[in-house]
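Page 37, continued from 36.
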């Protein structure tokens, strides 16, 4: 199995065992490829991202790099070679590359009789930036030509923060299904009472009818600010500050769910991403940040413990779902609980075909029991 720079938090599973149907992938955007904690100076780390093998590292000057992990000479993984903190050298014939640009700087076999200029040769390298402890990589579409200049790239995604001081935590879990199932599982309101049953959260018996307001936003939709449901214990905890609480949940292509809870000066926010590792497997990452209970000890450990449990429940369900998906069953999307999933598929299609259409023409209210 491919070594993953994501580990800890939630159990690893062997995705290769249970590959279900593939999904079409959205290139030309930023995805989290590795944790920067795995990128130690002078060391290389490998990752698979949208089926592309990557070698990542941090140069001595602090710059992150992400190269396609294939030497342009004969295709051996560059990660098999050497990185001295400045350049990456291939193990096979010793070609040397500046890893941020991919430019070849040296071909040891050349003599004065050769006319070949090494600096005209480039290995594939991709923009790589650090946010929230992720090394985000911009993967262009195949055949899209040169990667856009820095200024033409979309902004690097980030968990919103609303004060200078905050705490944060990260959780990750491999999912054995394609990115579409990972994403619609994430936005699915109806699984909560069944998958996430717990005495401290809610039970099947607490199911009740809900109405939620949605509005279109660029490449996504927003569940508009509202008072969160009264049967959610963590929200009750937030209520001790006595000010009105509002939450907003945004879904934005290609794979991002932003949740923001605000209560006066206090806030909790998270960015959850579902990233294609291959066309038929994905990984969920949650980066949460908050200033509530800033001075209370152990809150990070407790939040991480309960968050990990939550993600593990989703993961376990998708491991079981993958058993069924191997048989390529026909599936259903129903109104209204699966409406957000329908919007996701429509938004994705609009992006892939560049049609510029949006599935929501204005605000909508959806009703479901959960
Ligand atoms: S294969 Fe990399 S230098 Fe020859
Ligand atoms: Fe869930």
């Amino acid at each position: 199995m491919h070594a993953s720079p994501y580990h800890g938090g939630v159990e690893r599973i062997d995705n290769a065992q249970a590959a279900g149907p593939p999904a079409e992938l959205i290139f030309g955007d930023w995805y989290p490829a590795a944790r920067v904690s795995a990128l130690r100076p002078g060391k290389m780390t490998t990752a698979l991202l949208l089926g592309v093998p990557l070698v990542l590292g941090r140069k001595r000057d602090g710059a992150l790099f992400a190269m396609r992990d294939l030497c342009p000479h004969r295709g051996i993984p560059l990660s098999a070679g050497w990185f001295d903190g400045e350049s990456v050298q291939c193990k096979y014939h010793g070609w040397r590359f500046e890893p941020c640009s991919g430019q070849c700087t040296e071909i040891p076999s050349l003599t004065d009789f050769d006319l070949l200029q090494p600096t005209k040769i480039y290995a594939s390298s991709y923009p790589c930036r650090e946010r929230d402890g992720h090394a985000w990589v911009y993967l262009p579409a195949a055949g899209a030509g040169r990667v856009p200049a820095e200024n033409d790239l979309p902004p690097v995604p980030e968990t919103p923060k609303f004060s200078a001081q905050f705490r944060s935590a990260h959780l990750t879990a491999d999912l054995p299904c394609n990115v579409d199932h990972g994403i619609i599982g994430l936005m699915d309101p109806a699984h909560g009472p069944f998958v996430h049953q717990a005495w401290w959260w809610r039970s099947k018996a607490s199911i009740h009818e809900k109405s939620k307001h949605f509005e279109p936003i660029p490449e996504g939709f927003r569940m508009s600010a509202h008072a969160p449901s009264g049967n959610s214990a963590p929200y009750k905890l937030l209520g001790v500050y006595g000010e009105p609480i509002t939450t907003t949940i945004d879904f934005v292509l290609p794979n991002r769910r932003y949740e923001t809870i605000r209560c006066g000066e206090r806030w909790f926010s998270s960015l959850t991403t579902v990233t294609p590792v291959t066309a038929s497997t994905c990984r969920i990452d949650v980066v949460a940040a908050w200033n509530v209970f800033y001075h209370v000890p152990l809150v990070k450990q407790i939040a991480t413990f309960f968050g990990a449990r939550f993600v593990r429940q989703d993961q376990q369900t998708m491991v079981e779902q993958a058993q069924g998906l191997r048989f390529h069953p026909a599936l259903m999307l129903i109104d209204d609980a699966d409406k957000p999933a329908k919007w996701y598929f429509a938004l994705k299609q609009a992006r892939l075909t560049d049609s510029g259409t949006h599935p929501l023409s204005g605000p909508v209210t959806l009703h479901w029991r959960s």
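The domain at 29-139 is CATH 2.102.10.10 (Rieske Iron-sulfur Protein). Flag for discussion at group meeting. The chain has a mean pLDDT of 88.
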